[in-house]
């Protein structure tokens, strides 16, 4: 009976040309590609047809079908006009948000990308000699000068860097690592898995909270290729803990002729004035100076550059790594190199770096400034719709990207609440806008942390909030009318 009913319903479904006629009249969709639109409409109608036959949707009259189908398809086609991968405004206060693309790039890096991408470049061409050159040479000197290392190589990301270092220096041999450093970073990167993939044999020593020099000493055999230290980026073991001082470990290891490799995770070139460290993190320079043989770190964490895995260290080892076939598979592209070189150049002058590299700029914004920016935005947004309450309150931003998990940077939050309206719905509406605003829902309030909102984004933020308020208001009206 139901099947018969539904196949009767098929006759009520509109034809492609009917839908096209109705949708084509829409001003916003006048410039849409005709053949693409037909394909999308056909696909959609087929889906409705099969849903109807399977009884997933109920039959309706002809006019109702046409209305519903056109309204859905209009939204689908409008969305198709926008690029799928696009900019969002980060109101989460997480500076290196992996899901939101980690580090925004400096102006200088952006222009370098545009310049190199627009035409041809000397990517692998030595302009002086007119002969073939190496892509890695464009950043090698800068990296050597900045870090004090003998040599440098850059690959796709830091995970690739570790895989490459282990594959080229330790395949079928033993790598000693402290149990306190067998970390998982962001779901898909686990040190033991990467180790297995590289063909190295992992020798775990010590315990989660304590590893002593003696533990390393007892694990050394003829087959030992290297000692690996991994920064436990996204967590910290506190309390009854012990680990071996880097310099002590290196000194002993070198006396045995065994190199030390360190995965620093987030590499910083920067120390806070008067300290050798950056919020307690050693700089790359410091780690290199303590004679670690190979150091790897990310380009798009605290460094504030493009996604890349940077490997610096002793020339003999870097040469060996560069010759491994995986280097070709993991190589960086020209856009990354352009952005990385431009970012590294900014580090020549620390004050320039602090202002020009957005990651550092965000970290160093003062509470006074954030308070001013938050008040300015709140003042504008309050005028839009009195049913929303806009307050400025104290909160904390995070570095993110698995860097400095314990560090909370005091910030100012735009707190949006309403007695009658849903902040959950507000967050959904804001995400559906042309420039999506990503914030945090906390205690029935929609919160926007001003630290990760650039001054140039403030106008847009206000505009999007106004649009969202209007959209919700008109939806509510429609709802009332229908009811
Ligand atoms: C983030 C991180 C990685 C992975 O770096 P990607 O550049 O994201 O590939 C590896 N090791 C440590 C310790 C990290 O913190």
TrEMBL record:
Modification sites for N6-(pyridoxal phosphate)lysine: 301
E.C. no: 2.9.1.1
Stated role: Converts seryl-tRNA(Sec) to selenocysteinyl-tRNA(Sec) required for selenoprotein biosynthesis.
Functional pathway: Aminoacyl-tRNA biosynthesis; selenocysteinyl-tRNA(Sec) biosynthesis; selenocysteinyl-tRNA(Sec) from L-seryl-tRNA(Sec) (bacterial route): step 1/1
GO terms, biological process: conversion of seryl-tRNAsec to selenocys-tRNAsec; selenocysteine incorporation
Protein's name in the database: L-seryl-tRNA(Sec) selenium transferase
EC top class named in words: transferase
Cellular location(s): Cytoplasm
Cited HAMAP family: SelA
Listed InterPro entries: PyrdxlP-dep_Trfase (IPR015424), PyrdxlP-dep_Trfase_major (IPR015421), SelA-like (IPR018319), SelA_trans (IPR004534)
Keywords of this entry: Cytoplasm, Protein biosynthesis, Pyridoxal phosphate, Selenium, Transferase
Family per similarity comment: Belongs to the SelA family.
